[in-house]
Amino acid sequence: MESPEKLPPVPQEIIEQETANPKKALDNEYAELQEQMIANLQKPNLPNVNVPEKIIICLDVCYDDPSSLFRLGDGTTYTPINMLKRVLDFFIHSKHAINKRTEFALVVLKDTVPYFVQNFTNNLKDILSAIDYVNAEESKSESFDFQKLFEILKQEIEIPEYKQSDCIIPPPYVVRMIVLFARSNCIPVISQEDPYFNFLKKQLYFYIDILLAHEEDCALYKCAEVYDSLQDLDNGYSYVFEISKNATKIHDCIAKLLAHPLQRPLQKNTDYTFSSKT
């Protein structure tokens, strides 16, 4: 048997590059950590306390395709509205277990008009019955004007006032609106000139989170346009998620929304990985 050819020596510059990589990775990790710290320091000085939440659930009941389904691992299928009801059941029970003073209200987003269905309550039976009662509707409109929703909020909610002199004193509660939008061909209209919306964006004890559950084939729908429009609700402190008809991912997203607004980092700084010490 012939002996194998002798391999050429590894160039010195490659050796130096390889040995330098650990330091480079460490530097990158340090720079990223520094950026996260600066971003968090730029947040307003708010008390990091698990005060009660008043959570407004904005549930979109409209659908684009009646045959579009979520499918679990065991083969069980759910229509979009029933899957949203399922994850809301998990979310509400979990939040109640964390803090029994958490209150929930329900606003239903129909074709063009929102309806305030359930006022704030910490009675699980009341809020879950209200959610279970709503029915799905076919989406017929090309746009949904959020100004009507802002008018409802103006009438129905009271937001604790933030005072710089008392910034270390926890508020009695915070208000959070969670928008669960299920349409892929209906563009949300969110006017940046709306006076009450501008008021809401300046309130440090008011938060808006967004979960978009769109159709799978975005080439046939306006998924990107809908997602981009919904992000106009973000004042910099929102958590924004988008998923297609994926049952696992929608449960993951609703679980991430369990985090308390006063205790969670900015979304871009979140890390859900587990690491073990060696």
UniProtKB/TrEMBL annotation:
<keyword id="KW-0539">Nucleus</keyword>
<keyword id="KW-0234">DNA repair</keyword>
<protein>
    <submittedName>
        <fullName>BRISC and BRCA1-A complex member 1-like</fullName>
    </submittedName>
</protein>
<dbReference type="InterPro" id="IPR026126">
    <property type="entry name" value="BABAM1"/>
</dbReference>
<keyword id="KW-0963">Cytoplasm</keyword>
<dbReference type="GO" id="GO:0070552">
    <property type="term" value="C:BRISC complex"/>
</dbReference>
<dbReference type="GO" id="GO:0045739">
    <property type="term" value="P:positive regulation of DNA repair"/>
</dbReference>
<keyword id="KW-0227">DNA damage</keyword>
<dbReference type="GO" id="GO:0006302">
    <property type="term" value="P:double-strand break repair"/>
</dbReference>
<dbReference type="GO" id="GO:0007095">
    <property type="term" value="P:mitotic G2 DNA damage checkpoint signaling"/>
</dbReference>
<dbReference type="GO" id="GO:0070531">
    <property type="term" value="C:BRCA1-A complex"/>
</dbReference>
<dbReference type="GO" id="GO:0016604">
    <property type="term" value="C:nuclear body"/>
</dbReference>
